[in-house]
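S1.2 Input.
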Amino acid sequence: MSDLYHDGTATTGESVRRPWYRRRASQVAIAGTVAAGLVVTGITLGSSASAGVAPEDAVAEAAENLRELPTGVTITSPDEPGEVTIVRTDEGVQVSLEAPEQGASVGMALVADRLFLRVSANELNGFTNNPLALGATAAFPSLGALLNGQWVSLDVSEDSPLLAELQELGADQLADPEAFEAASAELRAALEAVAEDARGTLQGALQDNISVTEPDQPITGPANSTHYQVVVDKQGIVAELEPTMRQALTDVLAAVDAFVADAGEQFPDGGAMWDQAREQILTKFDEAVAEGAGAETGVVDVWVADDGKFSQIVVEGATLTFDPNATLAAPDVAVSMDDDLLALLPLLEQTGIPSLPLG
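S1.3 Output.
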């Protein structure tokens, strides 16, 4: 299946350009990183975004207020198709992606231990009429509903029968489940220790290399909002973080090496697969460091409303528009996939495909 790219063209993989939906996900990640940086730049948080509050305090307060619920954000870009909307409330989380020009629409919601999913894309039209697909959808109606753009749902609670079956299936496919669980616990502990060690350096690097100003000639934005500019010294961040992040990566790889040594043989070609992935990770890290070392200083435009919350952020060509009164729009009716997926599990077991325990 071809991937749609941000200019609306299709490719079979020759191009190095990322698919439009992956680029949008990258923008979400960048926005999240910036927000995290804004939180740590504020040494003394102001009580509001009104006049008299230091810019860094006003912006840091707005970043801190992102934790309040409900909150919603819509991400758009003039150079990218469609938009992404993310809503968080006390009831759950919802993500929707709309790209009318590409004929694609994706919705996902997690509400009350139930996952809702809807996918509608022109690329699926040919597949749904495939004899294999027709046979599969006849046997598993919820799969047909999903392929036809209807809402489907899945029980993801701790008491989910599907989760219990997956755990049992995964354990049955391990030569030594107890040894695997012990190795997994050691890996989790090692990763948590690495994250804790690196956290202080990360916060320090962000605080040292991110500054906030109120421009002399502010850009008009949403009503009742003040314009600030967040200046990010990307080279400075990379220079300060690189030694710590490289050591953290070394520690992480060593932890996974130990896990693979203890448990990797329980999976076909597990060791060989990890060796290949390990080399790719090291290469990607070096590429990221080299790119960051030559990066230009970034400027993020943010608007903070009079209530101390973000109203808009413009970063990396994407515009994030915030809605403090967002509500969930999960479907009232959805086709359950629980029974069909339970029926599929014996087929999965027959294939011999290993499945990790989900404990």
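S1.4 Remarks. The two ends are 34 Å apart (CA to CA).
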